[in-house]
Amino acid sequence: MKYRKLGKNGPEISVIGFGSWAIGGAGWASAWGGQDDDMSAESVRAALDAGITFYDTAAVYGLGHSEEVLGKALSKDRDRVVIATKCGLVWDENGAITRTGAYESVLREAEASLKRLGTDYIDLYQMHWPDAELPAEETMRAMDKLVQDGKVRYVGVSNYNVEQLQQSLTVRHVDSLQPPYSILRPAAEKELLPFCQANGIGVVAYSPLTSGLLSGNYTYDTTFGPDDWRSRNKAHTGEGLRSNVDRAEKLKLIAARYDITLPQLAIAYDLAHPAITSAIVGVRKPSHILSVLPAIDFTLDEATLAEIRAIAAAE
Q1: 66 vs 211, 225, 234, 240, 283, CA distance in Å?
Q2: Rounded to whole angstroms, how far apart are CA atoms 83 and 69?
Q3: What is the DSSP pairing of strand 122-127 with strand 152-158?
Q4: Active-site residue 3, yes or no?
Q5: Given 30, 223, 241, 267, which residue has the most CB atoms within 10 angstroms?
Q6: What digits encode the pLDDT tens for the residues 103-147?
Q7: Out of 3, 55, 61, 258, which one is annotated catalytic?
Q8: 3-state secondary structure of 80
Q9: Are 188 and 161 in contact (CB under 8 A)?
């Protein structure tokens, strides 16, 4: 495994991170379908054995279940890992989810996450989505309070734009940004990644395989169950799916030239950008994480990067 420092002030973390969205299981609005908890724990153990130190989850994944599963799986190895979770999406007794960055809510959510994770501190606490109804500064003040109280070590945000990052920085340093970033979703390259580089903000890319579109397993006929959020997503259905499968088939040819898989190519693409600290791989079983590990030793040259970008941009 290889490791990079998270921004100018953060810890060193593995360049591949363990993504825990799917291990939240079924029964909530953005589920990936059912998931076996024992398989999730086995996946965590495989990642630990491979040297992966960065584990990313969120309170809303499975409405708390992902945090519980991850916390138990890591309980004996707490001092070896960096646990990242997120706040800002809260749910009621019916599972209805709302977005909030309110000061008191952030503090309450942190206490609930600490309990579910079975730990007395969170390594990296991230605002999941910006709250358009409140100034970003209010959320950051709550985050800073959690750091002062010793309950959080580092502060991050997810899905923020440059303006929201700038507002946050007026309160305290932001240790990390978590944006969507992949061959098929390269928008972060334009403004976000250069801004983070210039301001010492680490970047942990999520969905480097574009939620499976760069897994190499999809065809025009791929379908998803009703309890899988992808069944309602334009990129994974209809003409969107067909277009993305076409791109993936062309990218497979590049991967084959170097005797690597499409997922390995996708991870190598993310890690090639100097702003990227780590790429989070969503995991449901050990092979999901173990199969992409060779990407850390593969370097893409500028000509190949340009070729990849041209395929992604083609209509």
Answers
A1: 18, 20, 26, 29, 12
A2: 13
A3: parallel
A4: no
A5: 267
A6: 999 999 999 999 999 999 999 999 999 999 999 999 999 999 999
A7: 61
A8: helix
A9: no
